[in-house]
Amino acid sequence: MPNQQATRAVVPANAEPGEESAESTRRRVLGLVASDGPVTAADLAARLGLTSAGVRRHLAQLEEDGTITVHSTPGVAPVRRGRPARAYVVTSGGQGELHDAYSEVAVQALRHLRAAGGESAVVGFAAQRYDDVVERLMPQLTATDPAERAAQLAAALSHEGYAASVRPVAAATLVPIAQLCQGHCPVQHVAEEFPELCEAEARAFAELLGTHVQRLATIAGGAHACVTNLPLGIAQAPTAAQIPEGTR
C-alpha cells in the first residue's frame, strides 16, 4: 500500500508525510507557470523547494491534462548539453483551472479576515468591493430611462463575465418590473461561504439603477442563475429604507 501511494503523490523531500497533497502542489506549479512562464522544471524546483524529478512528474501530468504546453519559441530556455531544457507556458484550459485555485485562496483569505476582525470585517470588505464596482460601472450607465439603464447594466456585467440579461416580468403591478438574470458568477465558490458578497452586490445594483431592488435567487445559493427584481419606474437615488432587508 505505501508503494502504491508513493506512485500517486509527489511530496517534497523536506516535507513531513501528508504535509502537502499532490493536487495542491500541482496547483502551485500551475500558478508559477502562469505567472513566470516560459519556465523550466529546474527553475520551478528551485522556487518550490522540490526535486527536479518531482516537478517533472507534476509537469507531465499538467501537460497530459492540457493545462500547460511546451513553449515553442527558440532561445527562451537555456541550452545545455544534449537537448535544450523544456520551458512551459499555461494553455487557455489552464487559465480556467486557475480561477478555481484563486477562489480557494480568496476563501482562505476571507476566513482569516473573519477570524481576525469578526463578521463586520467581512461585511466591510464586501462593501468596499462593490463600492469599487459602482465607481467603475456608473460612467457606463448613461440612460435615464429605467429599462435602458437596466439593459446597460446587464451589458456591463456581461463584459465582466456575468452572462447577464434583462427580462420583462408579467406582473399585475402599477410599476413595470424586469428581472436581471446573471447566468454566471465569477465569485460563486467564495459567495457560497460568504453571502455578504451577494448582499453587497444587490446594494450596488440599487445604487447604479437609482431604485430599490429585490434579490430572488443566487447561484451561490443553489439556483441556476442570480435573479434580481428591478422595478422600472422613475429612477431616483435610493434611500436606505428603499433597499430591501437582506440586501442592506
Tell me what you see in this structure.
- This protein is α+β, with helices and mostly antiparallel strands and 248 residues long.
- The protein folds into 2 domains: 2-90, Winged helix-like DNA-binding domain superfamily/Winged helix DNA-binding domain (Arc Repressor Mutant, subunit A), CATH 1.10.10; 99-231, Trafficking protein particle complex subunit 3 (Muramoyl-pentapeptide Carboxypeptidase, domain 2, 2-Layer Sandwich), CATH 3.30.1380.20.
- The chain has helices at residues 2-8, 22-36, 41-48, 52-65, 92-117, 119-137, 146-159, 188-193, 196-209, and strands at 39-40, 68-70, 87-90, 164-169, 177-182, 214-217, 226-231.
- It has a 4-stranded antiparallel β-sheet with strand order 4-5-7-6, with helices on one face.
- Helix 2 (22-36) packs across helix 4, helix 5 packs across helix 6 (119-137) and helix 6 packs parallel to helix 9 (196-209).
- The radius of gyration is 24 Å and the shape is elongated.
- Mean pLDDT is 81; it is low at 1-19, 73-80 and 235-244.
The helix/strand class is alpha+beta
User: How many domains, in number, for the residues?
Assistant: 2
Overall pLDDT score = 81
The radius of gyration computed from the alpha-carbon positions, rounded to a whole number of angstroms, is 24 Å
CATH superfamily of the largest domain: Trafficking protein particle complex subunit 3
Note the overall shape: elongated
Q: What share of the residues does DSSP label as strand, in percent?
A: 5-15%
Helix content: 40-55%
Mind telling me which CATH architecture of the largest domain this is?
A: 2-Layer Sandwich
CATH C-level class of the largest domain: Alpha Beta
Give the CA-CA distance, first to last residue: 54 Å
CATH topology of the largest domain: Muramoyl-pentapeptide Carboxypeptidase, domain 2
Spatial strand arrangement across the major sheet: 4-5-7-6
Uncertain segments are 1-19, 73-80, 235-244
